[in-house]
Design brief:
Elements (H helix, E strand, L loop, with lengths): L16 H4 L14 H4 L10 E10 L3 E4 L5 E3 L5 E11 L5 E8 L3 E5 L12 E18 L2 E20 L9 E20 L5 E8 L2 E12 L11 E10 L2 E8 L5 E10 L6 E7 L2 E6 L5 E13 L2 E10 L17 E11 L3 E17 L10 E17 L1
Antiparallel strand pairs: 1-4, 1-21, 2-3, 2-21, 4-5, 5-7, 6-7, 7-8, 8-9, 9-10, 9-11, 10-13, 11-12, 12-15, 13-14, 14-17, 15-16, 17-18, 18-19, 19-20, 20-21
Length: 391
């Protein structure tokens, strides 16, 4: 389940069309099975058994140019990311259980072989799958809490060019692959003191994936005894903790307005150490800064189960110029969403469209990757479809 991102670091906050259409302002609503991701306490609002499956597809839409006339365009083919959620609420006890399988992080970006910064990175991908069983308890009719472990598997691939030097007289290619696992948790609370007001909080713990795999190179003029073609390698990537708080206001039963504030602790994501490659140990500095997403959405009930939503969110840049990496081209990003759907007795479905826009982030003084200095423009498109079976 890799995905292309141009903001929010390598987080993937888009996990269901009902939320995406509302600018991901969903923590205080959380009234479909995707609450397992957005706020696990929300599954106490569901009746019986609910099985929801969705597919999210997004393009990169990133272009680069520099003052010397160099340019590059990232591959913008649509890439799919799937989500599956199951929730069951019991009849005689105020307890609900659920299981989500989704990708809360992800990155896949391919600049091709001829980008001006190809020695900093040509292509890379991170696949991150989360298996998330949860239990939620309706403590009172207006207050619920939910929590569960996150069992996480990840695979990473990184490709870069090797510059021309005495050991690589025509240049070369380097590739690192690996996978690993880690365990974390998420927890949420939902408080609905009145029919008009609802408050939600969702927290996800940090994880660190220790990757083990191989590193290889091609193009060396030296024998394998000096620069081997392949070695066993390892690396560690930190995935940050984050917390989301939301307020939902329903002035009438037909309207739902929500604002969420989402904070990601990127400060602990400092660097990626890649150990024991054919070229020695490598360090990829990041030194991210913690950042916010400001999310707002509106849903209107249209009658007979039909509804429509619109939303917007603003994502702050988390990557400083000095350590900017073109494979994670973070930027201040504005995202808009719109969607509609229908809820029936046995089946629910919904669809959403989202765009992300940045008119141009100009990177200067990149000490980690000087060749990456330049302007990065973003306009990407995404769609999400989901269907729920209730039984």
């Amino acid at each position: 389940m890799p995905d292309k991102l141009s903001a929010v670091g390598f987080r993937l906050p888009n996990q269901d069309p009902d939320a995406i259409a509302r600018g991901n302002a969903f923590a205080a609503t959380a009234d479909d099975p995707s609450a397992i991701y957005y706020n696990p306490a929300g599954i106490t609002q569901l009746k019986g058994q609910n099985l929801r499956a969705g597919i999210y597809a997004v393009s990169a839409g990133i272009k680069y140019n520099n003052s010397s006339g160099g340019s590059a365009t990232a591959n913008s083919d649509l890439q799919p990311v799937s989500q599956i959620y199951y929730a069951c609420s019991f009849t005689n006890v105020p307890v609900s259980v659920g299981l989500g399988i989704y990708a809360p992080y992800g990155l896949a970006l391919d600049w091709g072989n001829n980008a001006p910064f190809n020695t900093a990175g040509e292509s890379g991908s991170v696949t991150y799958l989360c298996f998330n069983p949860v239990v939620a308890w309706r403590v009172t009719p207006s207050f619920s809490i939910g929590a569960g472990p996150t069992i996480n598997y990840s695979r990473a691939i990184f490709n870069q060019a090797i510059p021309v030097n005495p050991f690589f007289p025509t240049g070369g290619q380097s590739k690192v692959t690996g996978d690993g696992t880690d365990v974390g948790f998420n927890i949420g609370i939902l408080w609905q003191p009145t029919l008009k007001w609802s408050f939600g909080v969702n927290y996800r713990s940090a994880t660190t994936i220790n990757y083990n795999g191989t590193a290889s190179q091609t193009g060396s003029a030296l024998p394998p005894s000096i620069i081997p073609s392949s070695t066993s390698s390892s690396a560690a990537i930190s995935y940050p903790q984050y917390i989301v708080g939301g307020i939902s206001f329903r002035p009438t039963p037909d309207w739902n307005l929500e604002f969420d504030l989402d904070w990601t602790d990127w400060h602990d994501v400092k660097q990626i150490n890649v150990n024991n490659t054919p070229l020695g140990n490598q360090v990829i500095p990041l030194f991210y800064q913690s950042s916010f997403m400001y999310e707002f959405g509106v849903t209107r009930q249209l009658g007979r189960g039909w509804f429509a939503s619109v939303g917007y969110f603003y994502s702050e840049n988390s990557s400083p110029d000095a350590n900017f990496n073109p494979l994670i081209p973070d930027a201040n990003l504005q995202l808009g969403g719109i969607g509609f759907g229908r809820r029936g007795k046995r089946w629910d479905w919904s669809a959403a469209y989202q765009f992300g826009y940045n008119g141009g982030r100009t990177v200067t003084g990149d000490t980690s990757n000087p060749s990456a200095d330049g302007t990065y423009k973003t306009f990407n498109n995404a769609v999400n479809l989901a269907v729920t079976l209730k039984f």
